[in-house]
């Protein structure tokens, strides 16, 4: 029965990391659900929920894709969908709390660049900005 509910609500997979997969929601394509596949994935979902809760009413919220819901155990996290970004969209400076500047961790939402994977971000948001050191996972694997 649980797989029937999952298949009813969750649409196609649009991404996968080591511990989580990302799917469009079937009835709300402006949202995604991050599905944890391990304890590390559940912790990542809970950390993104916590970071959004801290940042939501701050100046840093503009840099983050909003979290709309998270299951109590972190198995599922619902977040706004951000469209893929082009390299020209990436700024030279970013808030220092955004520590994992992989291109795939960002997208465009409402015309601005936002982080869609901030489980590795720092919890201390008060730090300033720093020079961005963007990187591409696919290019890193080739080296």
Label this structure with key terms.
143 residues, alpha+beta, Phosphorylase Kinase, domain 1, 3-stranded antiparallel β-sheet
Brief write-up:
This protein is 22% helix and 31% strand. It has a single domain, classed as Phosphorylase Kinase, domain 1 (2-Layer Sandwich). The chain is α+β, with helices and mostly antiparallel strands and 143 residues long.
Radius of gyration, whole Å? 15 Å
- Beta-strand content: 25-35%
Q: Which segments are poorly predicted (pLDDT under 50) over 5 or more consecutive residues?
A: none
The structure class reads alpha+beta
SSE arrangement:
Blueprint: H1 2-9, E1 10-16, E2 20-25, E3 31-36, H2 39-55, E4 67-70, E5 76-80, E6 83-84, E7 93-95, E8 106-109, E9 112-115, E10 129-131, H3 137-142
Antiparallel strand pairs: 1-2, 2-3, 3-5, 4-5, 6-8, 7-10, 8-9
Would you mind describing this structure in some detail?
With 143 residues, the chain is α+β, with helices and mostly antiparallel strands. The protein has a single domain, classed as Phosphorylase Kinase, domain 1 (2-Layer Sandwich). 22% of the residues lie in helices and 31% in strands. The protein contains three helices and ten strands; from the N terminus they run αβββαβββββββα. A five-stranded antiparallel β-sheet has the order 1-2-3-5-4. The longest helix is centred in the N-terminal third of the chain and has 17 residues. The chain is globular and about 45 Å long. The model has no long low-confidence stretch (mean pLDDT 92).
